[in-house]
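Example 4.3 (complexes with small molecules)
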Amino acid sequence: MTRKDRALKYMRILEETYPDAECSLEAVDPLQLLISVQLAAQCTDARVNIVTKTLFPKYPDVYAFANADLEELEQDIKPTGFYRNKAKNIIGCCQRLIEAYGGEVPDNMDDLLSLPGVGRKTANLILGDVFHKGGMVIDTHAKRLLKRAGLTKETDPTKVEFDVEPLIPKDKQSDFCHRLVLHGRAVCSARHPRCEVCPAAEICMKKI
Ligand code: SF4
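Answer. The structure with iron/sulfur cluster bound is encoded below.
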């Protein structure tokens, strides 16, 4: 079986196992998703969702975030960790959205990467989930699972992205990555992968 065949088989197994693939961050528009993803760095999605439940009503649009008081925003997002950097980036990001993109979240990689605090992982998630343009979101789960499955030997997230991206159809990439997260949480955890009950064992190289 080629690497591409195994990748497609893995994708189908995850589709059957986790039919409801979706981002676990709660957001009602592209801006909220963009901010939630930034808050999710080094933090669980569950904790981000608790914080944003009060954060988004307090800052209802891009202008509210762009004009936020830095110290107040820091306190508002403190439970997500690394709050000083995150607050500075969120304000800078929203100011740039207003200055360069009419207050809208842009729909291409180069423009997204020009925003403070936005790296390839965040940009790919926005491109896939908001604009349906595909995008491999290589977070800690995706990186671990793709390596274990033998679909990449790379460890740097950008190299993993470029290595695996050609193996998965564009319109499936986003959901595939969401399912990798679900599988990483449910079965293929960092410390105790449950290979004996894993539906993907037949294609997995188990390179742990
Ligand atoms: S077989 Fe084991 S290592 Fe491979 S995906 Fe399943 S749980 Fe993870």
